[in-house]
Inverse folding.
Protein backbone atom coordinates (compact mmCIF):
# COMPACT_ATOMS: atom_id res chain seq x y z
CA UNK A 1 0.00 0.00 0.00
CA UNK A 2 2.62 2.57 1.01
CA UNK A 3 4.71 1.66 -2.07
CA UNK A 4 1.67 2.57 -4.19
CA UNK A 5 1.45 5.97 -2.42
CA UNK A 6 5.20 6.52 -2.79
CA UNK A 7 4.99 5.65 -6.50
CA UNK A 8 2.32 8.34 -7.00
CA UNK A 9 4.09 10.98 -4.88
CA UNK A 10 7.47 10.45 -6.60
CA UNK A 11 5.79 10.38 -10.02
CA UNK A 12 4.08 13.74 -9.51
CA UNK A 13 7.27 15.30 -8.09
CA UNK A 14 9.33 14.08 -11.06
CA UNK A 15 6.68 15.37 -13.50
CA UNK A 16 6.77 18.90 -12.07
CA UNK A 17 10.57 18.90 -12.11
CA UNK A 18 10.43 17.79 -15.76
CA UNK A 19 8.27 20.82 -16.68
CA UNK A 20 10.78 23.16 -15.02
CA UNK A 21 13.76 21.29 -16.47
CA UNK A 22 12.55 21.67 -20.07
CA UNK A 23 12.00 25.39 -19.44
CA UNK A 24 15.48 25.95 -17.95
CA UNK A 25 17.14 23.95 -20.74
CA UNK A 26 15.24 26.02 -23.31
CA UNK A 27 17.32 29.03 -22.21
CA UNK A 28 20.14 27.68 -24.43
CA UNK A 29 18.01 29.06 -27.27
CA UNK A 30 18.11 32.60 -25.77
CA UNK A 31 21.83 32.99 -25.07
CA UNK A 32 24.78 31.16 -23.49
CA UNK A 33 24.78 33.79 -20.71
CA UNK A 34 21.09 33.27 -19.87
CA UNK A 35 21.54 29.49 -19.67
CA UNK A 36 24.74 29.66 -17.62
CA UNK A 37 23.19 32.12 -15.13
CA UNK A 38 20.22 29.86 -14.44
CA UNK A 39 22.15 26.59 -14.45
CA UNK A 40 24.56 28.14 -11.92
CA UNK A 41 21.70 28.03 -9.39
CA UNK A 42 21.62 24.22 -9.85
CA UNK A 43 25.17 24.11 -8.50
CA UNK A 44 24.58 25.73 -5.11
CA UNK A 45 24.47 23.37 -2.10
CA UNK A 46 20.72 23.67 -1.45
CA UNK A 47 19.88 22.78 -5.06
CA UNK A 48 22.54 20.07 -4.92
CA UNK A 49 20.67 18.42 -2.06
CA UNK A 50 17.43 18.90 -4.00
CA UNK A 51 19.00 17.06 -6.96
CA UNK A 52 19.94 14.21 -4.63
CA UNK A 53 16.27 14.05 -3.57
CA UNK A 54 15.16 14.14 -7.22
CA UNK A 55 17.52 11.29 -8.12
CA UNK A 56 16.27 9.32 -5.10
CA UNK A 57 12.67 9.81 -6.30
CA UNK A 58 13.60 8.71 -9.85
CA UNK A 59 15.52 5.64 -8.65
CA UNK A 60 12.65 4.49 -6.41
CA UNK A 61 10.03 5.15 -9.12
CA UNK A 62 12.15 3.26 -11.70
CA UNK A 63 12.82 0.14 -9.58
CA UNK A 64 9.30 0.02 -8.12
CA UNK A 65 7.95 0.46 -11.68
CA UNK A 66 9.84 -2.68 -12.74
CA UNK A 67 8.32 -4.44 -9.71
CA UNK A 68 4.82 -3.36 -10.84
CA UNK A 69 5.52 -4.74 -14.34
CA UNK A 70 6.69 -8.05 -12.85
CA UNK A 71 3.59 -8.28 -10.63
CA UNK A 72 1.42 -7.66 -13.73
CA UNK A 73 3.15 -9.88 -16.29
CA UNK A 74 5.18 -12.54 -14.42
CA UNK A 75 3.07 -15.53 -13.36
CA UNK A 76 4.77 -15.65 -9.94
CA UNK A 77 4.84 -11.84 -9.61
CA UNK A 78 1.89 -11.46 -7.21
CA UNK A 79 3.29 -14.25 -4.99
CA UNK A 80 6.66 -12.52 -4.70
CA UNK A 81 5.47 -8.90 -4.65
CA UNK A 82 6.51 -8.41 -1.01
CA UNK A 83 9.94 -9.98 -1.56
CA UNK A 84 10.36 -7.81 -4.63
CA UNK A 85 9.66 -4.67 -2.56
CA UNK A 86 12.66 -5.60 -0.40
CA UNK A 87 14.70 -6.13 -3.58
CA UNK A 88 13.61 -2.64 -4.72
CA UNK A 89 14.71 -1.19 -1.37
CA UNK A 90 18.04 -3.03 -1.59
CA UNK A 91 18.73 -1.85 -5.15
CA UNK A 92 17.70 1.68 -4.11
CA UNK A 93 20.21 1.71 -1.25
CA UNK A 94 23.01 0.31 -3.46
CA UNK A 95 22.31 2.81 -6.29
CA UNK A 96 22.12 5.79 -3.93
CA UNK A 97 25.29 4.64 -2.15
CA UNK A 98 27.02 4.80 -5.53
CA UNK A 99 25.49 8.11 -6.57
CA UNK A 100 25.40 10.24 -3.40
CA UNK A 101 29.11 10.49 -2.47
CA UNK A 102 30.09 11.36 -6.05
CA UNK A 103 27.30 13.91 -6.50
CA UNK A 104 27.89 15.58 -3.12
CA UNK A 105 31.59 15.72 -3.98
CA UNK A 106 30.73 17.61 -7.19
CA UNK A 107 28.34 19.94 -5.35
CA UNK A 108 30.51 20.70 -2.34
CA UNK A 109 33.74 20.88 -4.33
CA UNK A 110 35.67 18.07 -2.67
CA UNK A 111 38.46 16.51 -4.72
CA UNK B 1 -44.26 -25.83 -3.19
CA UNK B 2 -41.42 -23.37 -3.61
CA UNK B 3 -38.81 -23.56 -6.32
CA UNK B 4 -35.42 -21.95 -6.34
CA UNK B 5 -34.43 -19.86 -9.32
CA UNK B 6 -32.56 -21.60 -12.08
CA UNK B 7 -28.94 -20.42 -11.68
CA UNK B 8 -28.72 -20.09 -15.46
CA UNK B 9 -31.68 -17.74 -15.58
CA UNK B 10 -30.80 -14.51 -17.36
CA UNK B 11 -30.01 -11.62 -15.04
CA UNK B 12 -31.68 -8.29 -15.46
CA UNK B 13 -29.43 -6.02 -17.52
CA UNK B 14 -27.17 -3.77 -15.42
CA UNK B 15 -28.00 -0.08 -15.54
CA UNK B 16 -25.58 1.96 -17.63
CA UNK B 17 -23.05 3.87 -15.53
CA UNK B 18 -24.03 7.50 -15.10
CA UNK B 19 -20.74 8.76 -16.49
CA UNK B 20 -18.85 6.91 -19.20
CA UNK B 21 -15.22 7.52 -18.39
CA UNK B 22 -13.75 5.84 -21.43
CA UNK B 23 -14.60 4.51 -24.84
CA UNK B 24 -13.20 1.38 -26.38
CA UNK B 25 -9.79 0.16 -25.32
CA UNK B 26 -8.14 3.54 -24.71
CA UNK B 27 -7.46 2.84 -21.02
CA UNK B 28 -5.97 -0.56 -21.86
CA UNK B 29 -3.57 1.00 -24.37
CA UNK B 30 -2.66 3.63 -21.76
CA UNK B 31 -1.96 0.89 -19.21
CA UNK B 32 0.31 -0.96 -21.68
CA UNK B 33 2.03 2.31 -22.68
CA UNK B 34 2.91 3.14 -19.05
CA UNK B 35 4.74 -0.18 -18.72
CA UNK B 36 6.45 -0.16 -22.14
CA UNK B 37 7.56 3.49 -21.91
CA UNK B 38 8.60 2.97 -18.27
CA UNK B 39 11.19 0.36 -19.23
CA UNK B 40 12.59 2.56 -22.03
CA UNK B 41 12.59 5.63 -19.75
CA UNK B 42 14.55 3.74 -17.11
CA UNK B 43 17.38 3.23 -19.64
CA UNK B 44 17.16 6.77 -21.10
CA UNK B 45 16.98 8.60 -17.76
CA UNK B 46 19.61 6.50 -15.97
CA UNK B 47 21.92 7.16 -18.94
CA UNK B 48 21.07 10.89 -18.83
CA UNK B 49 21.76 11.08 -15.07
CA UNK B 50 25.02 9.15 -15.39
CA UNK B 51 26.42 11.30 -18.19
CA UNK B 52 25.29 14.63 -16.67
CA UNK B 53 25.65 14.08 -12.91
CA UNK B 54 28.10 11.21 -12.33
CA UNK B 55 30.65 11.10 -15.17
CA UNK B 56 33.40 13.72 -15.34
CA UNK B 57 32.81 16.70 -13.06
CA UNK B 58 29.07 16.06 -12.68
CA UNK B 59 26.66 18.96 -12.19
CA UNK B 60 29.54 21.43 -11.68
CA UNK B 61 30.58 20.94 -15.35
CA UNK B 62 27.16 21.69 -16.86
CA UNK B 63 27.06 24.93 -18.86
CA UNK B 64 26.18 26.10 -22.37
CA UNK B 65 29.35 24.51 -23.79
CA UNK B 66 28.44 21.14 -22.23
CA UNK B 67 24.92 21.13 -23.70
CA UNK B 68 26.18 22.36 -27.09
CA UNK B 69 28.81 19.64 -27.12
CA UNK B 70 26.17 16.97 -26.52
CA UNK B 71 23.63 18.29 -29.05
CA UNK B 72 26.29 18.55 -31.74
CA UNK B 73 25.76 14.79 -31.97
CA UNK B 74 22.56 13.37 -33.50
CA UNK B 75 22.87 10.54 -30.96
CA UNK B 76 22.13 12.85 -28.01
CA UNK B 77 19.53 14.80 -30.01
CA UNK B 78 17.56 11.61 -30.60
CA UNK B 79 18.19 10.42 -27.02
CA UNK B 80 16.87 13.68 -25.54
CA UNK B 81 13.96 13.91 -27.99
CA UNK B 82 12.82 10.37 -27.13
CA UNK B 83 13.24 11.11 -23.42
CA UNK B 84 11.21 14.34 -23.74
CA UNK B 85 8.30 12.75 -25.58
CA UNK B 86 8.12 9.48 -23.64
CA UNK B 87 8.55 11.18 -20.25
CA UNK B 88 5.94 13.85 -21.04
CA UNK B 89 3.36 11.31 -22.26
CA UNK B 90 4.13 8.94 -19.35
CA UNK B 91 3.99 11.77 -16.80
CA UNK B 92 0.90 13.42 -18.25
CA UNK B 93 -0.97 10.11 -18.31
CA UNK B 94 0.10 9.42 -14.71
CA UNK B 95 -1.06 12.84 -13.48
CA UNK B 96 -4.31 12.41 -15.49
CA UNK B 97 -4.97 9.17 -13.58
CA UNK B 98 -4.33 10.92 -10.26
CA UNK B 99 -6.64 13.82 -11.19
CA UNK B 100 -9.37 11.31 -12.12
CA UNK B 101 -8.90 9.57 -8.76
CA UNK B 102 -8.96 12.57 -6.44
CA UNK B 103 -10.76 15.47 -8.18
CA UNK B 104 -14.38 14.46 -7.68
CA UNK B 105 -16.09 17.68 -8.71
CA UNK B 106 -16.64 17.83 -12.48
CA UNK B 107 -15.54 21.46 -12.83
CA UNK B 108 -12.36 21.01 -10.80
CA UNK B 109 -11.44 17.83 -12.69
CA UNK B 110 -12.04 19.49 -16.04
CA UNK B 111 -9.99 22.57 -15.13
CA UNK B 112 -7.07 20.49 -13.80
CA UNK B 113 -7.00 18.30 -16.90
CA UNK B 114 -7.23 21.30 -19.22
CA UNK B 115 -4.19 22.86 -17.46
CA UNK B 116 -2.37 19.53 -17.64
CA UNK B 117 -2.92 19.15 -21.39
CA UNK B 118 -1.94 22.78 -21.99
CA UNK B 119 1.31 22.25 -20.07
CA UNK B 120 1.92 19.06 -22.08
CA UNK B 121 1.56 20.83 -25.44
CA UNK B 122 3.65 23.85 -24.43
CA UNK B 123 6.52 21.82 -22.97
CA UNK B 124 6.64 19.19 -25.75
CA UNK B 125 6.50 21.77 -28.56
CA UNK B 126 9.03 24.06 -26.86
CA UNK B 127 11.43 21.22 -26.04
CA UNK B 128 11.23 19.73 -29.54
CA UNK B 129 11.86 23.12 -31.17
CA UNK B 130 14.84 23.78 -28.88
CA UNK B 131 16.47 20.42 -29.73
CA UNK B 132 16.10 20.96 -33.48
CA UNK B 133 16.67 24.72 -33.85
CA UNK B 134 19.55 24.89 -31.37
CA UNK B 135 22.65 26.78 -32.59
CA UNK B 136 25.77 25.63 -30.68
CA UNK B 137 27.78 28.63 -31.94
CA UNK B 138 25.53 31.72 -31.77
CA UNK B 139 27.28 34.71 -33.38
CA UNK B 140 28.25 37.54 -31.07
CA UNK B 141 28.66 35.34 -27.98
CA UNK B 142 31.98 35.34 -26.10
CA UNK B 143 34.13 32.46 -27.35
CA UNK B 144 34.93 31.26 -23.82
CA UNK B 145 31.24 30.40 -23.27
CA UNK B 146 31.01 28.34 -26.46
CA UNK B 147 32.15 24.76 -27.14
CA UNK B 148 35.72 24.55 -28.45
CA UNK B 149 34.66 23.41 -31.95
CA UNK B 150 33.05 26.84 -32.66
CA UNK B 151 36.39 28.55 -33.14
CA UNK B 152 38.00 25.73 -35.09
Amino acid sequence: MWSWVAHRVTGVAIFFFLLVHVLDTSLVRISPEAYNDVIATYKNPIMGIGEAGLVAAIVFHAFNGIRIILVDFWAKGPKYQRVMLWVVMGLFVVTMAGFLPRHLMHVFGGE
Amino acid sequence: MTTIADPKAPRPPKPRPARLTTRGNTELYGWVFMRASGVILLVLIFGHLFVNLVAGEGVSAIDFGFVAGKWASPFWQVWDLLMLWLAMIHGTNGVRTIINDYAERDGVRLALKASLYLAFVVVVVLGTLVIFTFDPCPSGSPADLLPSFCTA
